[in-house]
Amino acid sequence: MPSQKRARRSAGLLLFRRPDGRPDGAVDDGAVDDGAVDDGAGFEVLIGHMGGPFWAGRRSAAWSIPKGEYGPEEEPAAAARREFEEEFGRPAPEGEWVPLGEARQSGGKTVTVWALEADLDAASAVPGTFTMEWPRGSGVPREFPEVDEFAWCTPREAAERLVTGQRVFLDRLREHLADGRVTPGRDGP
Questions:
Q1: Spatial separation of the C-alpha atoms in residues 7 and 106, rounded to whole Å
Q2: Is 43 exposed, middle or buried (0-12, 13-18, 19+ CB in 10 A)?
Q3: Which of 1, 136, 151, 154 shows the smallest number of beta carbons within 10 Å?
Q4: How does strand 98-104 pair with strand 110-117?
Q5: Could you read off the pLDDT of 32-51 as tens digits, one per residue?
Q6: Euclidean distance between CA atoms 114 and 177, whole angstroms
Q7: Cα gap 88→143, rounded to integer Å
Q8: Are the CB atoms for 166 and 63 separated by under 8 Å?
């Protein structure tokens, strides 16, 4: 009987904020406090630059929504919460989780993402680490941060930075906000 490979699945949490805390996301002069320029979307998202030697020096298509893999014994929302804390170093903020659905990545992994309106200081992140042999074949284990930088980005900036398969979640969040379906309320999904 042939063995079946388990489908890889990840879950994540995409934080978003509206400039100046205005419910409609409007800004007076197009600028927000951290230097990002509003691209007309009226919101920013928190994404992270992937750590480790493969991503070092790459800026485009080298960022990710805080997310990670989970197994069949874990619920996707619990995995998203766990992974956010592992990658950011702080628990996920309280608030209503908005489901943005699933997307299949080019490598075959299926990613499930929720959005959450919250404002955290990106510089306060204390990311978790992983260990790998580096350089390859050296026999020397080295530790690297899972994420080496977090930043608030407009959707346009985030689309340039995110790996291709995650960009769809920006569009889905924009649709939810345009429809007025994202409102403060419950904690978690």
A1: 13
A2: buried
A3: 1
A4: antiparallel
A5: 334 444 566 799 999 999 99
A6: 13
A7: 17
A8: no
Q: What is the rounded distance in angstroms from the CA atom of residue 44 to the CA atom of residue 134? A: 35
pLDDT tens digit sequence for 54-107: 899 888 999 999 999 999 999 999 999 999 999 999 999 999 999 999 999 988
Closest to 11 (Cα-Cα) out of 70, 63, 53? 70
Closest CA to 125 of 64, 84, 154: 84
- Residue 153: phi and psi, rounded to 5, are -135, 150
Q: Which tokens go with 31?
A: 């600028």
68 forms beta bridges with 11
CA-nearest of 165, 157, 49 to 102 is: 165
Cβ-count burial of 143 within 10 angstroms (0-12 exposed, 13-18 middle, 19+ buried)? exposed
Rounded CA-CA distance 128/87 in Å is: 5
Structure tokens belonging to residue 180? 């007025």
- The answer to whether the CB of 155 falls within 8 A of the CB of 174 is yes
Tokens representing 13?
């949490």
Sign of CA dihedral 131, 72, 50, 165: positive
Residue 7 is encoded by which pair of tokens? Answer: 């489908």
